[in-house]
# Entry
Amino acid sequence: MRYLDPKADLTFKRVFGEHPDLVMSLLNALLPLSEEEEITDIEYLACEMVPENPLRKNSIVDVRCKDKQGRQFIVEMQMIWSPEFKQRVLFNASKAYVRQIDTGEHYELLQPVYSLNLVNEVFESDLEGYYHYYKLVHVEHTEKVINGLHLIFVELPKFTPNTYAAKKMQVLWLRYLTEISQHTREVPQELMDNPQIKKAVTALEESAFTDAQLLGYEKFWDIISVEKTLYSSAERRGLKAGMEQGLQKGMEQGLQKGLEQGLQQGIEKGLEKGMEIGREEGVKEERIANARKFKQLGVAADIIAQATGLSIEEIEELG
# Structure
């Protein structure tokens, strides 16, 4: 049997966008819900894509739904990561939250929005865990929560079922997303033993897709490869430009600092030299004045020379 990768646009939307029971199982497994909060029904909502970074326009796949309580759920598969994604996720979740009511309606009608983001790249390399949950909490008393937005990011490459303690269904769904690809010929039996995972695996069978759909599937991976290349190239160009600008700025700052230091040192040395010359000239003038007085008193030139340090020739020239 040949299978397709569940992370692609075609397969992800078929599995989680056409089977309410499967997306509901995925959400219950991966969202931070207590047993009383688990989802029991799902209604699909129209997907609304906001303008994306040109390098990312094909790398995000999403499914949106809500339950009878009005809670909304956004499920996204992000093939390529960049720092602005967190702000983008916050923007989309916030927009879904505020659009629940019209102007003048009561705020208590607002229901929580959960954004589940499955990321096919590592973006928190300094953190060990693969599961990242953000919500509005009191800084000092984290048990105090403003219930409204819940943002969950899952780093798929970090997931290893043997090293993480997680719910059984969470492990099964993450194994489904990380272990099955177009290279898979035999699915592990422990995945097939679960009815929901087996149904999701069956939906990936290559024979279930038309030739046109398979061409679209291959094109999706080609586009992802191009987008990764473009983004990597943009990163390198940005890094190079940043280094060049930093070097230029550093040289300019270094030159400016050097000129300032040189000027300051020149002023200081000039003042010091000037003061030294001034002192020497003052001492000599004082010696000449004293020699002139001695000469007027009739003191011999050789004695005046010894007393003032002037030469006999200089003393004789004095008027």
About this structure: The beta strands are 43-45, 60-66, 72-78, 113-119, 131-137, 145-155. The longest strand covers residues 145-155.
